[in-house]
Amino acid sequence: MKYYLLAGEPSGDLHGANLIKGLLKADPEAEFRFWGGDLMAAAGGRDNLRKHYRETSFFGIVQVLKNLGTIRRQMRECQADVAEFAPDVLILVDYPGFNMKMARWAKEHGIRTFYYIAPKVWAWREWRVKAIRRYVDRLFIIFPFERTYFPKHGIEPVFEGNPLADAIEARRASLPTPDEFRRRNGLDERPIIALLAGSRRGEIRANLPLMALLSKRFPEHQFVVAGVAWIDRALYEQHMAGSDIRYVCDQTYETLAAAEAAVVTSGTATLETALLGIPEAVVYRTVWWQVWLRPYVLKVPWVSLVNLNLGRECVAELIQSDLSVERAEQELRAIVAGGSKREKMLADFDELRTVIGGPGASDRFAERMVEELKKEIR
């Protein structure tokens, strides 16, 4: 069968690549075409990569508005290529701003559509649920709590675990020991606190200054920020100025694996940190009016994926509009070695791994997709 996959950012490239590998196991004659990145190209054939996510990733309202013409042109280009390929199924991987429009187009043109990794409609933009129900033939979800959310809105989803477990297990054996990590990056012997300040410039501007202030209260630890290559190091250094924070690039899992604890900006990183077994505090700084509006616009009681999936508060969530570090210090001291909350949090992380499901999710999702398509053929 023929599969056309659409992924528009690095995480989608990772999960899309693992899904392609699973589809090849379930359907050895599978043919692919896709928008994605290097990982999908390695899994499904570089000649089948029609557009790299480097050309399609526009984050934030300003970037989107500045590139509206480019986005519209890319949409037309994508639609033409899907139509020319005539796939048995269009598989949309996260990236809802683009992919929800493609779902509508596909429905109007009689192309079967699977959505893999559902848009986070349970947090914001809940109106998208109606579009999912109308335009998506099968929804594949990766968070256990979504199994109860979507049926309430008339959608029966498929859950087979979380592909993050696959990504982490694939990397775990190759991760350096803490001592090796220190040697590679010229760090001293103090215990490490990992800083994950976000993957977007706005997140770093908002959260890294608080993390820098926090680091000064823990001279017995060394704070290491895990940077990402698509953001200029100068931005990190600007907000680390005056602190002793060390910088490493594209070593997120390596930094976490070497850390005693972590301070993490809300997002997928909260779940990755927990699955790696590193106690964490979640910090997210935003403007005061967004904090004030949070109870009215956020559809869920927590922002971290750890708490959402466990259905209770496991990790502290510090959502604030100023640079106060007192509570951040209190929560971090509670989870470093000897801290009062550390052992309970580690036990909660063990439970989380069970709730999320073990490795093999990508293969299980692929098997279900092939089964669904074979039903249609019969």
Characterize the structure shown.
This is Lipid-A-disaccharide synthase. It catalyses: a lipid X + a UDP-2-N,3-O-bis[(3R)-3-hydroxyacyl]-alpha-D-glucosamine = a lipid A disaccharide + UDP + H(+). Its EC number is 2.4.1.182. Keywords: Glycosyltransferase, Lipid A biosynthesis, Lipid biosynthesis, Lipid metabolism, Transferase. One of its GO terms (molecular function) is lipid-A-disaccharide synthase activity. With 378 residues, this protein is of the alpha/beta class. It is 49% helix and 16% strand. It is built from 18 helices and 13 strands. It has helices at residues 10-26, 38-44, 60-66, 68-85, 96-108, 128-135, 146-149, 163-172, 178-185, 201-215, 233-240, 252-257, 268-275, 288-297, 305-310, 326-333, 342-356, 361-377, and strands at 2-7, 31-36, 49-52, 89-93, 113-116, 138-141, 158-159, 192-196, 222-227, 246-249, 261-264, 280-285, 317-320. The strands form two sheets. The protein has a seven-stranded parallel β-sheet, sandwiched between helices. α11 links the parallel β9 and β10. α1 (10-26) packs parallel to α2 (38-44), α5 (96-108) packs parallel to α6 and α10 packs parallel to α11 (233-240). The longest helix has 18 residues, at 68-85. It is globular, with a radius of gyration of 21 Å. It starts with a strand and ends with a helix.
